[in-house]
Amino acid sequence: MRLSLRGMKSETDMAKGRIGNFSNRILDHFYNPRNVGIAEGFNRSFLEQNNPWLIRIRFTLRVTGDRIDDVRFQAQSCVTTTACCSALTEMVRGQAVEHARSITPEQLSEYLGTIPQEKMYCAAISINALRRALEQPSPRASTQHPQEGANS
User: Fold this and answer.
1) What is the domain range of residue 50?
2) What is the pLDDT, as a whole number, of residue 137?
3) Is 85 exposed, middle or buried, given 0-12, 13-18 or 19+ CB atoms closer than 10 A?
């Protein structure tokens, strides 16, 4: 895959690890998103799809007590939103639910190496979708996977 350097703002951007308005970390999370899919045995889920930007994000989480055991996402979105969702999964996996709820768009931007100001709504919508997923037990919450070796 080739990245075009057209639109590069300056050589200073290159020195700072940026292509256009995107940091290398944002591009890495977009081209190599982490934790894509559906969390096995998830018990929290939320689908964000009614927004003016036509972004679709689904977070699924497996939460035990106050810990996030697993988190996955699916997205039909722009570069920044995909990167935000991917980064959020890294930031919250294994953490307390309260920690996940407390993440701000500014913290997510710092984690990703600065989100352009005009794209900060992507961070906000991603964080909101994650928070909504944490608040809403999934209808599948009571579904148990059979134990390995169990007789049917």
Assistant:
1) 25-136
2) 80
3) buried
